[in-house]
Write a structure and sequence with these properties.
Length: 176
């Protein structure tokens, strides 16, 4: 069982969701968080498991359908209060009601991608800005803060997975 927790094994296991999450992004999550449970993948293995109804276990990664983001955020916040923490890949819709009522007061931090994100096999990127919302439980000092810390991030090597042709990469190159 110890072998399953090695980073290499975690990366292999985490690619169960490649239909909706880019591989480079899964690698980034695995390198930065100790993911031990994935409700969506577990649901595929056990047909009687419903992630929004049953408890989560450990530290979870979830990339919910964007239309159901609010339900998954509510569940992640509830599970975090029980000690089951999570990272959610969500559209960065900062003015949405669920952001104001759940994410801002209860998330530990938000990491906003400065790079485009597209689903595997898609020709175009996701229209919305994407972010990782982390629910790890707030400390006593952080509980009174109105917002979690928000950080812009750009994982190394993301462009090589999207823009094979130089002319497409040039559109997103940094100018001095």
């Amino acid at each position: 069982m110890e072998e399953e927790n090695t980073p290499k094994q975690r990366v292999k296991r985490s690619f169960a969701d490649t239909e909706t999450t880019p591989g480079w992004l899964r690698e980034f999550v695995d390198q930065n968080f100790v993911i031990t449970f994935e409700p969506q993948s577990y649901c595929q293995m056990r047909k009687d498991y419903e992630p929004l109804v049953h408890d989560w276990a450990g530290f979870s990664f979830v990339h919910p359908p964007h239309a159901e983001a609010q339900l998954w955020v509510e569940k992640a916040a509830t599970e975090s209060a029980k000690g089951n923490h999570s990272v959610l890949l969500l559209p960065a819709v900062f003015n949405a009601v669920y952001w104001r009522e759940i994410v801002y007061p209860r998330a530990t931090e938000v990491r906003v991608f400065t790079c485009p994100v597209k689903m595997p096999g898609a020709k175009k990127q996701i229209v919305s800005q994407m972010c990782l919302v982390i629910f790890e439980g707030r400390s006593e000092e952080e509980k009174d803060l109105p917002y979690p810390p928000i950080f812009p991030i750009e994982p190394a090597g993301w462009d090589s997975h999207y823009y094979v042709r130089a002319r497409n990469r040039a559109r997103f190159s940094k100018t001095v």
